[in-house]
Amino acid sequence: MMVPLNWYLILSAAVFMIGMFGFLTRKNVIIMFMSVELMLNAVNISLVSFSHYLQDMRGHILVFFIITVAAAEAAIGLAIIIALFRNKQTAHVDEMNEMKG
Amino acid sequence: MMTSYALIPFLPLAAFLINILFGRKYLKENAHWVSILAVAGSWVVAMMALVEVYGGTKINYDLYTWILSGGFKVSVGFLIDQLTVVMLIVVTTCSMLIHIYSVGYMHGDPGYYRFFSYLSLFTFSMLMLVMANNFLQLYFGWEGVGLCSYFLIGYYFNKKSASDAGKKAFIVNRFGDFGFGIGIFIIFLTFGTVYYEPVFSQAGNFANASINFLGYDVHLMTLIALLLFCGSVGKSAQMPLHVWLPDAMEGPTPVSALIHAATMVTAGVFLVARCSPIFSLSETALMVVALTGAITSLFAATIGLVQNDLKRIIAYSTISQLGYMFLACGVGAYTAGIFHLYTHAFFKALLFLCAGSVMHAMGGELNIQKMGNLKKYMPVTYITMLIASFSIAGVPGLAGFFSKDEILWLAYSGASPVGKLVWLMGTIVAFLTAFYSFRLIFLTFHGKFRGTHEQEHHLHESPKSMTIPLMVLCIGAVAAGWVGIPHLVGGGAHFTEFMKPVLGHPEGHGTHAEEWMVMGISVLVGFAGIGLAYFMYMVRPELPARIAQQFSAVYRVLFNKYYVDELYNFIIIRPTTWIAKNVLVGFTDARIIEAIVNGVPNAIAAFSSGLRRIQTGLMQHYATIMATGILLIIAMMLLR
Question: At A12, is the secondary structure helix, strand, or coil?
């Protein structure tokens, strides 16, 4: 039996919400970064499921692009976090308020 | 051939640009070469123009379209007719000689290049003024010479009296130029153009037209003429706007000679003569011109009697002689007015340059009571100044005699209703002029030296660059009048004939006997003035002081120039400064303008300090706001 599309979408929404709440509530930069990855993958799930549902390969192709970009983004993001940590000796996001007006 | 006439004004302009840009660093002590060569070039081209115009050609062409807006067109153009050519000769000749004189006079001055660049700019403006073929270009030149006058009066700008005098000249001229400007507006409104030719040829059609001005129906031509005359009154220092000219003597003496005697101040007379087709249509305006001229002439001459400042006496003499020219224009004798302008330029420039030479020797001293016996030390200056004084006093045969006589005769015999009155005033002025001119000569050059020993030791004749222009001008002061010897004494009256196409030819209505009488009286009063001055200052030197004591009230009034400056101070300057201080600074500036200027940034600052509170700098806050926003947008789309 086929798993209905709705289930995939609910999974995608749940993963996205977990990622979003993680990003908004956790204070550690690394965790926040992981949350962002989570949100990206939630979107990937919905793209793949729609692609399968509509029998259209364009969704798959887009997902491959997203995974590639996410890999690059992870490399840069981690580098930035390391640089930040070297400067601040902390990974706590509340300490990073240089942009305060 | 035509375009080469554009060189007349543009050569001095080029000299100005070169001197002002490169004078300070590169030309320095050689700045005069550029200016002198430029003005000499202008003189040569002006002479070519004279030859051409004398042959009967009238040059009128547009060089460049300046403003084109709908039906309103103005160009930079040149009209060279007989009147312009006479002005060109006067301006370029005087300007050239005074440039040369300045080489000696200004030697060693730290602003040497600046002085010459201003002189060139002045020459350019003055030439643009006289060569204009439309009113707007005339106005451009008019303001240009005013500006240069301001620069040059305030040339010694670290001297407060000089910079004040510059401002005074500029501000007093605003009063006159305001009227002049409105006059040009009304000309454009009436004729639809500001070019001379259509305006003057159509003026006759409006001879009886009237216009509603400030709620009154006034005769159109009278209004235009009087408004134009307003400008003349300011520029030519006539009553009641004469106050700036004596103060203008704060400038260097060559400037006084060039701008405040020979050329710029005569621009007013030139304007009246140029606009003679308009003035001739209004009897009232002519009468106003004649009376203003006559009264100013008498007024300034009486002040000149008692002043002690060498240059100011000559300045009052200038005001008086300008009044003479207006008197002539007012009785319809424009030719005689321009003739006097032309002869006056030579002998008055000469008087000023001699005064400069005396100042040079006296180390800047101007009080004639502290001079005396200078003829021993400065023979060239003495002789040239003596001849200039004979000329202004109207000694027969010299330049001043012919022009003055023509004015008096045409005033006496002309058709003007005030002719006889202004003739009488003019004759009195002739007497006073002779008297104060020779008072100056006797006090300065004769008797005993009354200055300090140091000054006496320093006395010397001026350098060649100064005395040669004096001698050349002296030839002018003697011979300039010979082109206009009247028929009565066997001359050809060439000047009058030459000007006839532009200014017409007013015929005197009188017998030969009357003409001899008028001439005789003017000669007689001239000699009487000289004689009286000789008697009072040479024969009985104690007499002037006794007279001053006897009539101390009159003396005080004259010495204080009729208290005109004090009057203006009381009725204009003080109220104006009061308004400026209490209303404009105290209220408008502090309460309105500053309120706006400070209020706007204050309001922005208050608003933005509120906005600053949400800029926490914490990334998660921003993310929360973004997320909330997206959720709200989605909610709105779903619920719609």
Answer: helix
CB of B617 less than 8 A from some CB of A: yes
Any idea of the CA torsion for B441, B443, B447, B448, to the nearest 10 degrees? -130
Instruction: Give contacts of A101 with chain B, Cβ < 8 Å.
Output: 611-617
CA dihedral B123, B126, B130, B132 (to 10 degrees): 100
Q: Residue B616 has what pLDDT? A: 82
- Residue B362 near residue B456 (C-beta atoms within 8 A): no
Angstrom distance (rounded) from CA B589 to CA B285: 42
Does the CB of B638 have a partner CB in chain A at under 8 Å? no
- Please report which residue ranges of B109-218 form alpha helices under DSSP H: 112-131, 135-153, 160-191, 196-202
* Residue A17 sits at the chain B interface (C-beta within 8 Å): no
* pLDDT given for residue B494 in this prediction: 80
Q: How far apart are CA B255 and CA B525, in angstroms?
A: 32
Measured between beta carbons, which residues in chain B are less than 8 angstroms from residue A24?
Answer: 620, 623-624, 627
pTM for this structure?
Answer: 0.80
What's the rounded Cα separation, in Å, for the pair B540 and B546? 11
List C-alpha distances in Å: A80 to A33, A39, B160.
Answer: 11, 20, 68
Pairs of residues, one from chain A and one from chain B, whose beta carbons lie less than 8 Å apart: 33
pLDDT at residue B637 in the model? 95
Q: Do A97 and B623 touch (CB under 8 A)?
A: no
State the pLDDT at residue B281: 87
Give, for B625, the enclosing helix (H) or strand (E): helix B619-639
| pLDDT over 90 at A11, yes or no | yes
Place of tokens 């030296």: B449
- Helix (H) or strand (E) run with residue B42 in it: helix B31-54
Torsion of CA A37, A43, A49, A53, to 10 degrees: -160
Kindly report the nearest CA distance between residue B619 and chain A, in angstroms.
8
User: With helix as H, strand as E and coil as C, how does B339-404 read?
Assistant: HHHHHHHHHHHHHHHHHHHHHHHHCCCCEHHHCCCHHHCCHHHHHHHHHHHHHHHCCCCCHHHHHH
pLDDT for the residue B213:
74
ipTM score of complex: 0.84
CA separation for the pair B450, B118 (Å, rounded):
36
Torsion of CA B600, B606, B607, B612, to 10 degrees: 130
Question: Which residue is closest to A26 within chain B, CA to CA?
Answer: B620
Contact A100 B615 (CB under 8 A): yes
Residues of chain B with pLDDT under 70: 1-3, 507-508
The CA R_g of chain A, rounded to the nearest whole Å, is 17
Q: Where are the beta strands (DSSP E) in B516-610?
A: none
Check residue B124 and give its pLDDT. 93
A19 reaches B (C-beta below 8 A): no
